[in-house]
Every structure is written in structure tokens, then in C-alpha cells.
Amino acid sequence: MAAENIEEQVDDFPWHIGVYDAHCHPTDTMSSIASIPDMKAAVLTVMATRAQDQELVEQVASKHGVKSQPPDSAHGDGKVVPCFGWHPWFSHQLFDESVYGGDSKETLTPEEKQQHYKTAITTKNAQSLSDEDQDMLASFPDPKPLSQFIAETRKRLETFPQALVGEVGLDKAFRIPYPWAPDQEGQRNDTLTPGGREGRRLSPYHVDMEHQKKVLLAQLRLAGEMRRAVSVHGVQAHGVLFETIKQTWTGHERHVPSKRERKRQKEHPQAVHADDHQGENIQGQTEEVTSRPFPPRICLHSYSGSASNIKQYWDPKIPIDFYASFSTAINFAERETPKRSGIEDVIRAVPDDRILVESDLHTAGDIMDEHLEDMVRTLCTVKRWPVHDGAQRLKANWMAFVYGTGK
């Protein structure tokens, strides 16, 4: 059946099946939160990213959070799954206490603060700062202890048993915004939650990659401890992102039976392989399933790498179940360019049971519903799925990613 005919065979979009946004940021526009109960989307997976929105996500989840598993929004169960995490764009605002005297270190002296930021951001000359560099460092907030943030996030995950860890990750492209300049007075949009870019001019400074990795690994380990899924951001860092996540599972690889072992298991189905423990098949180890150094599931959100790059995540030896989500806002922002052809190749490379849709929008309501419908239709066209079938598949995939359904 031609792709255009697949798309045309459904006149009414199947909202009744349930459409699940795997990644969005409505707390960046708090005035839009009131529209969530009236949205067509079944559930929004809402990300926290920085100091200013952790409590906001918690507040929204307290009011609109799902309560059952699987969620039943049709009967008033709520429409939000909260996610608590620290985004790589803001990771310089966390400091490693071990560098400054131990875990009890809650604040830094002015000299330590400057030293921290000189280490955590990449400047032209970190040891000889220009006046512009000095102004940049002075504009940064007092950094927060990394272990304190991890402890606070652990409590939030305990409060919300269905919560995920996110948004976390690595980003080589992002440049830190300058502070508001005097000539920009009055330009800030007061409807936006503070702390984001908010239209500020971008500086030439990046967050140091080693520092980003330290913050990411701490959050991945927490997700492993709490057995929560993770939503991961990766921009121009696909190789280093894979290698960083790999650090968490190294030594815990799944055993992949050889041809001889598969033949033996087929001939003797009652025989339990020595490496198959508690159904997880992880190198014969006997550690508790309730805590591991790696998360059980990870979604590569709005994935922007190549088709050949993403295939490495489905190596059967990897003990993490990887998913990939796509958005019109990021992946299909340019509709008629070679980039579209490339992203369609990526979508086709993702296994049918590991693909998700997202909006990645900062405003809830009708526009978020429109983006989700557009992405579902686009994905179904690329995958050559009837839209009703695609909606069912995507619903099952979201349930499996968030709850581990069927795992």
C-alpha cells in the first residue's frame, strides 16, 4: 500500500486510542497548565531541567498526575507523568563537593565559585579571564551541590512512584546565554519561567563536556538505583553520549546465546542456562533486580544522530532497553530539505516496538495536540502503518517505556 494511501485512509484522528507525549516542557509556560485537563492527548511526560522548574513539575504532578498503572485519563486519572532531572545546558550550575572538601560542602566562597565556573565552562582562556569573562562568571547563580540535587531528586522520585528521570544528557552545541543587557530591559517575557534562554543573546561559552558527563552519570546511577526510566538529550555528542551511558552497564552485559547454546536450549527446554538469572540474563550475577548501576530504560528524545549511529543502541548484549522519540518541532522543523530524508532513515532504523512521539513544546494546550497529531501521522507514513494501528503501537511503546510493561 502506498504511503499516501495509508495516511488518507483515516479521516478522523484516533484520539480515543490514546496519544502519549513522551517529552514536553509545559512548566516553562505556567499559564498554559490550566489547559492540560482539556487536551486531547492522553498523558504528557513533563520534564524538569533546572533549579527553577523542579518544584513546578512537582506541583503540576500533584494536581494533574496519573495515579494508576496504566493511566486512565478517560476516567479522571490525571494526565501528567513527572520527570525530575538537570539538563546539560544548566549543568555548570551544579558543583562537585568532593573538589571542595567533601559532601558537607553546601556553598562556595566567592573564590571557589569563580574557580568552579572556570572549570565547568569552556572559555577562550580559562586562566586569564577578560573583563567580559569576569562579567559572565559574576552573572551566574551560586552553584548547587550535585549530591544535594541528587538527594532532592531521590525524594521526589519516592513521592511520585511513577516519575521518571529527565531531562538529562550531553550537548556540545549549546552556548550559555549572556545575562540581560541594559538595553534589553523590558524585553523579557514575564509569562516564561525564569532560567531559560528567554531570548537572551548567546555567548561563545560552552559547558565543559567532562563536567556534563559527571552530572549525567550521577543521574543515571540514581535512575538505576530507583529503577526509573530516563529521558536523554543528545546534541552533536552522539558518540560520547553512547560511551558515557556505556560506563553504567559495563560488566553487566546480557549473555547472548551462541548457535550451539540455542540448539541445546531448543533440544532441552527445561534446562536453565547458567547465565539466565531472574529473567534478566545478565552474566550470571545474583544482584537484586531492585537496584543496578544503570537505568532499566532510556529514551533518546528528539534523536538527531544518524541511522547508522542509532543502531548501536539495540545491541542485544546491552542490558538497557533503549527507545527513541521524535518531534515535529525538532526533527521535522525543516520539511523539504535533505535533513528530512535523513531523519526518515533514522525512523525506519528504530525497531517498531521502541519508537515514541513527543512534542518537546514549552506550552500545553491545542498547539501541543496539533504537534502530536502531526508527528503521529508523519511517523505512520514513514513506517507505513495505518494510523489506527500506529496509534495502538505507540501507546503500547509508551506504556513499556514508562512502566516496563511486558518487561
TrEMBL record:
Mind telling me which InterPro entries this protein's record contains?
Answer: Metal_Hydrolase, Metallo-hydrolase/TatD-type, TatD-like
SUPFAM superfamilies the record matches: Metallo-dependent hydrolases
Please list where the region (Disordered) is annotated: 251-293
Give the highest taxon in the source lineage: Eukaryota
Q: For bias kind Basic and acidic residues, which ranges apply?
A: 267-279
* Any one GO MF annotation of this record: hydrolase activity, acting on ester bonds
Protein name according to UniProt: Cut9 interacting protein Scn1
Species source reads: Pseudovirgaria hyperparasitica
